[in-house]
Design a protein that fits this description.
Number of strands: 7
Low-confidence stretches: none
Mean pLDDT: 93
Shape: globular
Strand order of the largest sheet: 1-7-6-5-4-2-3
Number of helices: 8
Distance between the termini: 25 Å
Radius of gyration: 15 Å
Largest sheet: 7 strands, mixed
Structural class: alpha/beta
Order of helices and strands: HEHEHEHEHEHEHEH
């Protein structure tokens, strides 16, 4: 993915700070943020601290912890501001396919919804399944904060060094 390091990449004090900044730069009181459970325990309180309303969708073990795209489409309302996703998924290990990216792109196309994509486990995958970032699809990339972590990648989580990749105009808001 071709990015401008000066205007589209922001290094922060860990991925949790990156998630916090992404939510707080775009979520206003009353805005809904959809997230999938099980999820990182910081997602819900980060959204609530911004005045947002977390909307939870349960991932089902019987379905391989895959997102039910029809259910996601039904949960979207005029108040939906953002969707938080996580791939590779913690704690289940499920990884999105190209079909998942296409389904997600179809849902958000033509909307003003933003995506906060937690991809901190991008290098910790199994069974030779490739990680496919939301940033690989233009309709997703143009509205996504992609959160990554040097600490997770290098197995030095105590270092708390993360980064966010986002379009320049979104990065300006994130950095505020």
């Amino acid at each position: 993915i071709d990015l401008d390091a000066n205007s589209e990449v922001t290094v922060v004090s860990g991925a949790t700070e990156a998630l916090f900044a992404a939510v707080h730069c775009c979520v206003s009181p009353g805005d809904e943020v959809i997230m999938f459970d099980p999820s990182y325990d910081a997602y819900d309180p980060i959204v609530r601290l911004a005045g947002g309303v977390p909307v939870h969708i349960q991932l089902k073990a019987s379905e391989g912890f895959r997102i039910d795209w029809a259910e996601l489409a039904r949960k979207i309302t005029p108040q939906t501001r953002a969707i938080m996703v996580n791939t590779p998924h913690n704690p289940t290990g499920s990884v999105w396919s190209m079909e998942d990216l296409e389904a997600f792109a179809d849902i958000v196309k033509g909307t003003n919804m933003l995506i906060i994509s937690d991809e901190v486990y991008e290098h910790i995958i199994f069974d030779n399944v490739p990680h496919l970032s939301v940033a690989t699809r233009p309709v997703l990339a143009e509205r996504s904060f992609v959160v990554s972590s040097f600490g997770k990648t290098t197995h030095t989580t105590g270092w708390k060094i993360g980064y966010v990749c986002a379009p320049a105009e979104m990065t300006i808001e994130l950095r505020k």
